[in-house]
Target: Carbonic anhydrase
Amino acid sequence: MIDILTGLKRFQSDVYPSHRELFAHLAENQQPRALFITCSDSRVVPNLILQAEPGDLFLIRNAGNIVPPLGSADGGGTVASIEYAVEALGITDVILCGHTNCGAMKGILHPEKVASMPNVAAWVQHAAPARREVERLFPDVDEHERMERMVEQNVIQQVKNLLTHPFIRSRVEGARMEIYGWVYDIRSGLVRGMDDSGKEFSEIHFESHGSPDEKRMLRELEKDEEFWERI
Ligand SMILES: [Zn+2]
Model:
């Protein structure tokens, strides 16, 4: 705990003063660039990965970056936070980001590992359709690849779950919202993005051959950067 408090002290004495204007602006306003839904895993640090400032990302985190589908008894906090991000803050870009070596995904592949944790065991059941897809599509892969595919299929499944919620689906169908499925590789720092088919993942490049979605997002990020430079 002493390390944690040392960090707080350093923030207050060194970091805060150098961002005083930004924090003053944020004290009364927030206009996040994106809703970022990811795992609670300590190794996934969205503001570091995206080099985002305070106020940039509206974050929702839980074990396994899960979005309970419409009608789930346990949708509560996660779905309420998504609803607030969309309805109250007007966020139109949603990034759902899984990661390599995810403990929650191990839990759904190996239920015995979470048998003593009934809440975890029940929660990861939201990834059960993804596990069935892994078994169907990749029946003969080794354990390492099975985990990799599981993480990807879970992102696909949770994007589908997002679309079960009418306030999300209506915006996506009306081209007023974009959803991006990502997988962050802890070892390499690379990110793979779900393609337009919603079935395949490939590394996100930011050169001219980026997908139209990536190019559009980059343009928006550049616009946002101009905004942040002005304030
Ligand atoms: Zn995880």
Notes: Residues 39, 41, 64, 99, 102-104 surround zinc ion (CB under 6 Å). The chain has one domain: 32-230. The first strand starts at residue 34 and ends at 39.
